[in-house]
């Protein structure tokens, strides 16, 4: 039982760490993640009768020196 | 998205809107883990009209002339549906005035401060605001003193207490 608790704790800690990393990611990277979510969710939502359209954005990150 | 923000900046420079800031879900995402949304909510201060009426019609007309079509309550600007929300009360006016300047790639823009976003969620008070609020206050870094001042000045203490219990 202790081993299971330990494994679950490790998983939850990993998820929390990932959430914190994502929370401080650059804004454009977050918007790109939102658009990916839109694309993944759109077919499901359309099947449920909700008309949605993922954003059409340029996904190439701008390099600082370019 | 960057081109969308450039258009908003052009509208501000041309005086079609006096000031804008990103709010709503995308504003919240600036401070927290990304989640699914299809709208870009943009709060705007509109130029004063002679009759003192708050109307988005002149803004929509300019956008139409530029070829940006109205879609339901939004205007699709460079592939992103933008929902314009005029500053409708003192809290939103303050949120717009104090919005944070930032860059999206190379384009300057503004995002509502997290303390104001949280207060607007509490004031709006829909179920979806409450759901978002609980995650937002855990993930977004906020200035606690500033937040409490906003909540107090806009008479939101009671609901704030209820939502954070």
Question: What report would you give on this structure?
Answer:
The complex is a heterodimer of chains A (66) and B (165). Chain A has 66 residues and is mainly alpha-helical. Chain A has a domain of 46 residues. Chain A is 65% helix and 0% strand. Chain A is built from two helices and no strands. The longest helix of chain A has 22 residues. Chain A is flat, with a radius of gyration of 18 Å. The mean pLDDT of chain A is 83. By secondary structure, chain B is of the alpha+beta class. In chain B, 47% of the residues lie in helices and 20% in strands. Chain B has eight helices and seven strands. In chain B, β4 and β5 form a beta hairpin. The mean pLDDT of chain B is 92. Classes of the chains: A mainly alpha (66), B alpha+beta (165). At the A-B interface, α1 and α2 of A face α1 of B.
Descriptive labels:
heterodimer; A: 66 residues; mainly alpha; 2 helices; B: 165 residues; alpha+beta; five-stranded mixed β-sheet; two-stranded antiparallel sheet; 8 helices; 47% helix
Short description:
Chain A has 66 residues and is an all-alpha fold.
